Amino acid sequence: MNTYQAIRLIAGRELRVKLRDRTFLITTLFFLLIAVAATALPALLAGGSTTVAATESVAAPLRQAGLDVRAVADDAAAERAVRAGDVDAAVVAGPTVLAMNEAPDDVVKALSSAPAVRLLNPDALDPVIAFLVPFAFAFVFFTTSQLFGVQIAQSVTEEKQTRIVEILVAAVPVRALLAGKIVAACLLALGQITLIAVATVAGMQLADSGGLLTLIGPAIGWFVPFFLLGFLLIAAMWAVAGALVTRQEDIGGVSLPVQLVVMLPFFAVVFLHDNASAMRILSYLPFSAPTAMPLRMFSGDAAGWEPLVSLALLLLTAVAFVAAGARVYEGSLLRTNGRTSLRAAWHHREPIA
Amino acid sequence: MTSTLRLDGVDRSFGDRQVLKDISFEVAAGRMTGFVGGNGAGKTTTMRIILGVLAPDAGQVLWNGSRLTRQERRRFGYMPEERGLYPKMTIREQVVHLGRLHGLDLGAARRNTDALLERVGLAERGDDLLETLSLGNQQRAQIAAALVHDPEVLVLDEPFSGLDPMAVDTVVSVLRERARAGVPVLFSSHQLDVVERLCDDLVIIADGTIRAAGGREELRAAYTLPRFELVVDGDAGWLRDQPGLTLIDLDGPRAVFDLAADADADDQRVLHEALARGPVRVFRPITPSLAEIFREVAQ
Questions:
Q1: CA distances from residue B49 to B11, B73, B155 in whole angstroms, order as listed
Q2: In which band, very low, low, confident or very high, does the pLDDT at B1 lie, cut at 50, 70 and 90?
Q3: Does A1 lie at the interface with B, CB-CB under 8 angstroms?
Q4: Percent of chain B with pLDDT over 90
Q5: How many Cβ atoms are within 10 Å of A109's Cβ, its own excluded?
Q6: How confident is the model over B35-70, as pLDDT tens digits?
Q7: Rounded to whole angstroms, how far apart are CA atoms B127 and B125?
Q8: Which of B100, B129, B131, B153 is the mutation pick for testing A, counting most A CBs within 10 A?
Q9: Which residue, among B14, B22, B285, B28, has the nearest Cα to B154 in the 3D structure?
């Protein structure tokens, strides 16, 4: 059996165990529901046009505007209907628009003559979407890397805690063990975000906001490679955190720095998303690039070569982290007495044949 | 080719503390080799070095005369001192998994797992999670995990600790079966009576050095004093005057004595003498128990 087969077996076990884990399944389902709800619900709830009570004399322009007109006998009846809550608004002689506490824009619009409008930048983003999409990307990356990161650490510590690691290390190379775990976590994370992406797209179809889809489609396309490499980077750190301790309870303590390097870029991207120069820097820093660069692609202010350079930087960093992580992992995996320091793990090596 | 595992001049230190000094011994094919020593004598470190979990500072582990490789090690079966399997996996699933990690294909791993679980009495519990089993049953599962890939060598650290007497018998018979099939078996134990009952060969380690190694009977012979027990009907006090004989214990008709190593001191002569004086009820050489040899050697 070669190393590749060993990695496949290790990864296979991790996947099987995880796919049967109830917590994991429930979280995934929960994410999917949120994705569908966030995209489809607003459109569904917004459905149903405003109801207007009016006498036949003023009803024509309202009907033309697509409003739901309830014909009433006179203006007094119209006002009663509004007060009773039977309709959203009423139009009485004047014409005057009646409503309870908020001017009904669509009714007002139907009765006004609008001036001609010429848009100078018709493709500019709706500011709500311009905020929501970055936030959604950052959120997905943040939660997925946190969720799966903790699971990598737990799985590493479990093997140390139960001492099965000694049998494993006698059978397969330590690096194969690490690689198998990271591969499995990457597959699960990728699978989960793919599902979320599919759910989001389906939600958009449902809400008939296909325009938005063509808009963020390319950003989603870029998000995938960035996400994978970014996750690899973080997975290596979580594996090290898990290898340094011998009990599941101690993971929280050692993983604080890892959580910080995930959390700080998340907030940086969320808060600085409309600051172009900050985003330019963030889109090249390996820890924030996975969310910052797809965003700049989305808002259209990154040149075509920029994601490639950023991706290359991220790849180099991820490879370096995995290599360093593998060394620390090897140095700490068999130290089953309490917590190992990074330094001790780095310098301790069993030159195993 | 005979399959022999040999350690050759193995040293190992942890920091400033040298825990193994020039360890050399052999585990021969088809022999159960008992590995005994006190706590901290170096048994576990030695076994970890054999399995490549630790590396020696000097010396080497040889398999059939040449340096042991990783591929060969994968064909070894190992039961570490500190037990552990995945608590949240079923017994069957994890034994199959370990079999595959040791190079079996899925079909063979499944077949071996089923046969072994049957053999160690866990067939009914195969689909239960490990954590739901009693400690004794977890121990049986551990044995199955060490044996699933039909190992060419077995290295078992304290395989009997925590087992009830019935489980000990099961495990003993499984191990003997493997030994008879030509597998070298090295096992450590604190329970010297079990080792005495089981082993063909014996390696005694103390303070990181090998104090004695060899066949059980040869070792016993080497450490046997020419000591005898005699029980007669009358008083055995006359033994005091026999030449070349040192009385160790005298209690009326029963006496324990050593014979000097020279040619004059002949056990048969003493027996004739005793028979001339009356009936002899017991006359036998006293062989030391393993515990006695161990105490003497390990000092």
A1: 10, 11, 11
A2: very low
A3: yes
A4: 43
A5: 12
A6: 998 888 899 999 999 988 888 999 999 998 888 888
A7: 6
A8: B100
A9: B28
> Nearest Cβ partner of B74 from A16, A163, A171?
A171
Q: Can you give the residue ranges of every domain in chain A?
A: 51-119, 126-346
State residue A49's pLDDT score: 66
Residue A166 has its nearest CB partner, among B80, B100, B101, at B80
pTM comes to 0.77
Chain A nearest C-alpha distance from B262 (Å): 53
Distance CA A145, CA A118 (A): 45
Selected residue of A164, A247, A248 to mutate for chain B interface (largest B Cβ count, 10 A): A164
Judged by CB atoms within 8 Å, which residues 16-45 of A form the interface with B? 16-17
What's the length of chain A? 353
Is some CB atom of chain A closer than 8 A to the CB atom of B87? yes
Contact status, residue A43 vs residue A209, Cβ threshold 8 Å: yes
Asked if B157 and B143 count as a contact pair (C-beta separation under 8 A), the reply is no
Across the interface, which of A6, A17, A170 has its CB nearest the CB of B52? A170
Asked whether the bond before A104 is cis by omega within 30 degrees of 0, the reply is no
Q: Would you state the torsion angle of the CA atoms of residues B15, B16, B17, B18, taken in this order, to the nearest 10 degrees?
A: 100
The yes-or-no verdict on residue B93 having pLDDT over 90 is yes
- Residue A147's alpha-carbon distances to A151, A239, A319, A329, in angstroms, are 7, 13, 22, 20
List alpha helices for chain B, DSSP H.
43-50, 70-73, 91-101, 106-119, 135-147, 165-180, 192-198, 216-223, 267-277, 290-298
Kindly give the interhelix angle for B290-298 and B216-223, rounded to the nearest 10 degrees: 70
pLDDT digits (tens, 9 = 90+) for B142-188: 999 999 999 999 999 998 888 888 888 888 899 999 999 999 999 99
ipTM summary value? 0.80
